[in-house]
């Protein structure tokens, strides 16, 4: 409160956890509403109702080594309402009475590198306020949750709107949270349903008004609503390495929801699994038994390979295939392998697509022998043995 920011350490002392104050900052004139650390922990940004965003970096002098120091300050047109980090040196801000997203680069000083219009028609009309921002893991997308029950998914550093998502209950008085799933296929958004107004109705039924809405980006559909609190969700976050969500609410409780998007996807894929779902149960049990070192090894296995974003030569594409083959070689024989284009990749030359399809099939055949291949597209689905 009062514009103060404190940097704390969570330490274990005499068998009990406690907070230790490391630094205090008072660079705002009004209440600080949000703080966000950069992915590498070398910077953080604070935003406030005083229309100011302050950027801090870890000190490099011997006196300030390990401590943070003010790098720069920016004053916006209105109250700064949302901030996120696109990568370790780029932050994205939104403010009230502003139709743009603002990109800031952290260098020797803070510089505004780009302004992006949030209006699809390119006009300057301000018809909504962005209340929450989130960037995808690979930095290719930015999601903006507005006070009009609309979530805009944009291509990073561009005004191109990839998706508009509707279905989460968010109004101008809410404090929503938003984030992408680990694989960037789903988007989590807090949603607050109207609470029962009558005391008698409240006694008869306990309504879970605080929810998390889950959208599938491929279809732009609301695929799941997770009821989790009796009152509005105040904040939530996703575990950095699993699809576990932790929510906090005005009902003074914290709630955990594990593998929400994964469960929805597994239901759709259940027809490819054994009737008794033994494989699924074994996988869940194995994941729960993993030690920290084993989880780290699993994360470093590189489960995804991305196409080069610029014109590529054949050696570059072969390297992508080698990475995929090396990863698949560490797995057991799969029951099903799918190959699909991402909806955000844009145009993919046919020669790339054919080269990768044939290369992947050859790699799978080398690893697992004879395969049954099913090919389909939007216009003409057909089977080939």
TrEMBL record:
Which SUPFAM superfamilies does this entry report, sorted A to Z?
Answer: WD40 repeat-like
Q: What keywords does the record list, in alphabetical order?
A: WD repeat
What's a single GO CC term here?
Answer: U4/U6 x U5 tri-snRNP complex
Q: Which GO terms describe its molecular function?
A: U4 snRNA binding; U6 snRNA binding
Enumerate the WD repeat regions by residue range: 25-56
Matching entries from InterPro entries are given as:
WD40/YVTN_repeat-like_dom_sf, WD40_repeat_dom_sf, WD40_rpt
Q: Enumerate the Gene Ontology biological process terms.
A: mRNA splicing, via spliceosome
This one is known as Uncharacterized protein
Species, as recorded: Effrenium voratum
């Amino acid at each position: 409160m009062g514009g103060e920011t404190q940097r704390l350490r969570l330490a274990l002392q005499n068998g009990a956890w406690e907070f230790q104050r490391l630094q205090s900052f008072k660079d705002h004139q009004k209440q600080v509403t949000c703080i966000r650390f950069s992915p590498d922990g070398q910077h953080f940004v604070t935003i406030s109702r005083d229309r100011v965003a302050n950027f801090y970096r870890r000190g490099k002098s011997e006196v300030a080594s390990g401590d943070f120091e003010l790098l720069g300050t920016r004053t916006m047109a209105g109250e700064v309402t949302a901030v996120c980090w696109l990568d370790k040196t780029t932050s994205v801000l939104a403010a009230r009475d502003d139709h743009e997203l603002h990109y800031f680069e952290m260098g020797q000083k803070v510089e505004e590198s780009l302004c992006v219009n949030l209006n699809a028609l390119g006009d300057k009309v301000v018809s909504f306020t962005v209340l929450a921002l989130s960037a995808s893991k690979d930095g290719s997308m930015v999601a903006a949750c507005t006070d009009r029950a609309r979530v805009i998914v944009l291509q990073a550093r561009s005004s191109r709107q990839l998706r508009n998502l509707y279905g989460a209950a968010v109004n101008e008085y809410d404090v929503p949270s938003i984030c992408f799933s680990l694989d960037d296929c789903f988007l989590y958004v807090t949603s607050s349903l109207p609470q029962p107004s009558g005391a008698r109705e409240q006694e008869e039924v306990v309504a879970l008004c605080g929810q998390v809405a889950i959208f599938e980006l491929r279809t732009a559909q609301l695929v799941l609503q997770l009821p989790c609190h009796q009152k509005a969700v105040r904040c939530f976050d996703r575990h950095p390495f699993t699809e576990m969500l932790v929510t906090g609410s005005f009902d003074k409780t914290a709630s955990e929801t594990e593998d929400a998007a994964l469960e929805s996807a597994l239901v759709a894929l259940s027809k490819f699994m054994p009737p008794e779902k033994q494989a699924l149960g074994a996988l869940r049990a194995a994941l729960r038994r993993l030690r920290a070192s084993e989880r780290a090894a699993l994360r470093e296995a590189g489960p995804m390979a991305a196409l080069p974003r610029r014109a590529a030569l054949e050696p570059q594409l072969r390297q992508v295939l080698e990475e995929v083959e090396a990863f698949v070689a560490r797995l057991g024989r799969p029951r099903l392998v799918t190959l699909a284009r991402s909806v955000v990749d844009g145009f993919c030359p046919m020669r790339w697509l054919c080269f990768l399809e044939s290369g992947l099939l050859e790699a799978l055949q080398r690893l697992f022998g004879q395969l049954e291949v099913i090919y389909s597209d939007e216009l003409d689905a057909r089977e080939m043995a």
